[in-house]
Structures are given as C-alpha cells and as structure tokens.
Amino acid sequence: MSERSAAPAGLALVESLVNTLDLESGGDSLDSPDVRERFGIAEAELPAARELRESLRATLLAHAGHPPHREVTPLGELLARAPLLVAIDAQDGSAALAPADATTLTSRVAAAVAEALVAGTWTRLKACEAVTCHWAYYDRSPAGRGRWCSMQVCGARAKMRRYRAKAP
Q1: What's the 3-state SS for 49-74?
Q2: For residue 125, what are the β-bridge partners?
Q3: In 10 A of CB 73, how many CB atoms?
Q4: CB count, 10 Å around CB of 57?
Q5: What confidence score (pLDDT) does residue 85 get?
Q6: Which of 18, 62, 80, 134 is least enclosed by beta carbons within 10 angstroms?
C-alpha cells in the first residue's frame, strides 16, 4: 500500500514479512508457495510465521504509539527462541550479530532486529495507524512522527474523516 521506499538493511525483511497480509482485503500472500519460498518458509512452518508476523505488527504499532491490534505472543518470547552468534569478520575485525541458524525465519528476524537496535533504526519501523491497514513502513520523517504508511491513501482518509466529523 505504501509509496515509501523500503526499510534499510535487515529491516526490509521485517517490513516485507509484516506486509504479507493486506488487512483491508484479507489477502495473505503467505498462502502463495512462491512467497513462502522467498521467505524460506516451509508449509509446516506457516502457523509460526504468521504468529511472528502478527507479533511484529503489534511491536511496530507500539513504535507508533498505538496499542496492539489483537492479542499476540510477545515478540521477545518468539525471538528468545532464535539464538544469535557474534560473527567476527576476518578481514577487518568488525563484529555483528548473526543468526545461529540462518535457515529459520525467526533467526533472521532476530538478527535484523539486533542489527537495527545497534544502528538506532529499530523504532523507525512502524505500522500505519489506520485500523484497516497497519501496513509496515520505515518512518524517514525528520522528527520520527510519521503516522501513516501513505499520506495519499491512509493519511488522506483519516484527515477526511476528521473533517467530516467536524462538519455541521
């Protein structure tokens, strides 16, 4: 739904996972084998991937100052199941947190969250406040106060509703 550019680095994985569900239409692209393959999700792992997606959505709503959209397993509990390793680059000695098992989606998400925490970008990934949307987007606004995934769609709808509510 968003016309915004993708989130930086590993956050693009988180953003694209959250955005596999279109709340307005109910379409879930994780139903597609091609999309599951892109994320490295086996059909048997689909319930866990959906649980992770909705826990991420609740966290991104919190980043934007909104309550969870529904009751979910806390993201910390899910990511605790995904151990990370400190990887040291042999060439320059730099260190990074890497998934202990890069084949699992939860491990890759945990590494992306850790990387974003270190970079200071984690809280810039948010979910749109529109209840029919909750699309993930990376807030690039200078003050970090973005509210909608799209000013032209969700923002315009919210402003029009507010205007109509004030009209006599």
Answers
A1: HHHHHHHHHHHHHHHCCCCCCCCCCC
A2: 138
A3: 13
A4: 24
A5: 94
A6: 80
pLDDT grade for 100, boundaries at 50, 70 and 90: very high
Using a 10 angstrom Cβ sphere, with 0-12 exposed, 13-18 middle and 19 or more buried, the burial of residue 157 is middle
In degrees to the nearest 10, what's the CA dihedral of 12, 81, 128, 31?
80
Are the CB atoms for 158 and 64 separated by under 8 Å? no
Sign for the CA dihedral angle at 19, 60, 67, 1 comes to negative
Q: Contact at 8 Å (CB) between 30 and 46?
A: yes
The count of other CB atoms within 10 Å of the CB of residue 51 is 14
User: What are the tens digits of pLDDT across the range 111-159?
Assistant: 999 999 999 999 999 999 888 888 899 998 877 777 656 555 565 555 5
Nearest CA among 165, 138, 161, 137 for reference residue 1: 137
Question: Strand locations in 10-127, DSSP E?
Answer: 84-88, 95-99, 125-127
At residue 20, does pLDDT exceed 80? yes
Supply the pTM of this predicted model. Answer: 0.85
* Rounded-to-integer distance, Cα 59 and Cα 68, Å: 7
Please give the Cα distance from 25 to 11 (Å, whole number): 25
